[in-house]
Sequence to fold (129 residues):
Amino acid sequence: MFKYIAVLLPAALMAVSAFAVDPAIKKQLQKLDPEERLEQSCDTEAMKRIAQEKTGFRPDKVIAYTFHDPALGEDSIKAPGAVFRSGGDWYHLSYDCVTGPKHMNVRSLSFEIGQKVPREEWAEHYLYD
Fold:
């Protein structure tokens, strides 16, 4: 039994730390209602993962509802019409995200980056510099 714990505990800690919430962000998230907390937790994780995994992007904002309303589950959000801003430009984004029941920690996130949003479409979709 001890052998299984010795193997599983480090793996579980690595999985938890991969999606750990920064203490300052956590404090702000706790002030939000649960639905907004779910969206903001996932938006924050999407920014973090895009910066880590997609060379050349440095996102500073994600909006889940720009082109389509997201589908909210109890602990999940599917945002096929999201966008993110990087280097002063906006890009289409689609993501699926699952959080824990308090919506503080992201358990899984998958995303796909789309094309750059043409500047002439920004005003129509309330995008900004």
Summary: The first strand starts at residue 59 and ends at 63. Residues 34-53 form the longest helix (20 residues). The two ends are 56 Å apart (CA to CA). Confidence is low (pLDDT under 50) at residues 1-18.
